[in-house]
Design brief:
Helices cover 31% and strands 28% of the residues. It contains four helices and ten strands, in the order E-E-H-H-E-E-E-E-E-H-E-E-E-H.
Length: 216
Amino acid sequence: MRLLRLDEAAFGPDDTVFKENPTQALLFTAMFVAGALFFLGLWIEDEVGTFLGVLMVGMFGVFAAFTGNIARKAFRPNAWQMAVDGRRALIKFRSFLNTLHPETDPQVLEVGLDEIASVRENELVMLTAGHRGRKATTIERSVDIRVPGADLRPLAERLEVEREWKRTGFSIKAWPVALPEEGVIRVNFSSNVSHVKPPVGEAVRLLAVRSRGEPK
């Protein structure tokens, strides 16, 4: 197990690479742009007042900029989460949305598959307040990788560094990797700002088949 810079984490022909999928962000961006144009048209035609027109165009414009930023970054070469071949897994613990830290920082963990004792898929369903008091559902999916006896202190220190940056502009707080308990690495595959493909089930299958453990 070791930490790598991004330029040291090379993919091979046998790697299955789990990449960020921009589809949802693109769809939301298109929807918000359409909403902004719709209210702009109503405002120009005097179908709505100036206050409401400016408010709605501005609101949809901000939402479009937010989701458009996610979609734009999802097309970058560093928008991947994990790569697995027959001997090791590369886990990128810096979010593709975090562009504030230097690219030369360590941001990838290399784990030998023979170090993995077991893997487990997680699903967390969260209910939050939505429009007009309705509940909005967010589902987060992740995989827990158990590596008993491994020294995770270097990774824990790097994760602390990742959490130190401050929000600027349209930057988003996103941390795809966590250490929920001793000897366990949790890798997020799906959240409100990230959607990785292939899905988490394929990661569980590959890690379990090629390690010394079994899925749980």
